Amino acid sequence: KQEVTQIPAALSVPExxxxxxxCSFTDSxxxxxxxxxxxPGKGLTSLLLIQSSQREQTSGRLNASLxxxxxxxxxxxxxxxxxxxxxxxxxxxxxxxxxxxxEGTQLTVNP
Amino acid sequence: xxxxxxxxxxxxxxxxxxxxxxxxxxxxxENMFWYRQDPGLGLRLIYFSYDVKxxxxxxxxxxxxxxxxxxxxxxxxxxxxxxxxxxxYLCASSQDILPEAFFGQGTRLTVV
Lengths: 111, 112
Description:
With 111 residues, chain A is an all-beta fold. Chain A has no helices and eleven strands.
C-alpha cells in the first residue's frame, strides 16, 4: 500500500527566506506527483504536476523536483512571502487516477 | 480555468438524516472523486467515478453512497448521518489525458 510522508509537519520562516518542503513515498510505481496548497478551511489549489517521466516543474517562485527511484520529491519556494503561508500537500497517483496524500507541511512566513 | 463547485460551504445535520453533498465541474472531466479530510488522518478517498453511472469504492466507503447521472455532477450521499461523519468533504475532478486534479472549496459538515 502506497504511503506518503511529508517532513517537516510545520515550518516557520522569516520573509524572504528560500525553503524546501519534502515528500517521500514508499512505492516508486507512480504515474505522477502533484503539489497542492490549502488555506485554512478551504479546498486544495493545484500548484505543480510532475509526470513520472519528468524530473522537475517550475511555476514562478515554485520549483518541484521528482526522483522516482528514491521515492522523493521536493518543493522549493524562493523568496518566501507572508502570502505563502498555508498548508502544502503532496499527492502521488498510482493506479486508476487515485491520489494518495501526505498529511502536509504547515508553512508560516513571518513578516 | 477549471471550476469545481460544491453546493454548500457549511452544513449542520442531525443524526439519522439523509444528507446529499453535490459537486459540479465545468470542464468535461471524466474522473470525479470524493474525499474527507480529518486532522491527523489527512485526505482519504471515499468514492470515485470514471464515467457517467460508474462508481468505485475508495478506502473508506462505509456509510456513504454516490450518484453520477450526468458527467458534470457527482453526488455524495450519507444514508443515515452519524456524528463520526462530521468532517470536511472535498470533491475533485481530473481528466485522463492530463491527470491534474482540481478541487472544490470543500463542505464542512457537522452532524449533531
